[in-house]
Amino acid sequence: MKQGKEKEKAETAGVEAGTVRYLRIGERASAVKTFYKEDADKFALLTGDNNRLHTDQEFSERQWFGRPVVHGVLTASLLSTVMGTKMPGNGTILMSENLGL
Fold this sequence. Notes:
This protein is mainly α. The protein contains six helices and no strands. The chain starts with a helix and ends in a 16-residue tail after the last helix.
């Protein structure tokens, strides 16, 4: 009996106690972020993705979206934010992600 309770305690304790916190079906977490031109410009500088669709207002207005588009991978990085700060939290590293952009 004691083993079961200790296991349950370890599963919910998180990395602060040196254990693993397992996700549960139905658990949810989210992050909300407004991206600005400066964010896209910094991301383009950091990654080298200088596609004018992301950084040039006049150019992007003439394209299909009609305005600048935030880099898809920049928006996808919010998954890492959620996993590393909320669910499960500190100590978590996002090791794999499948994207469709």
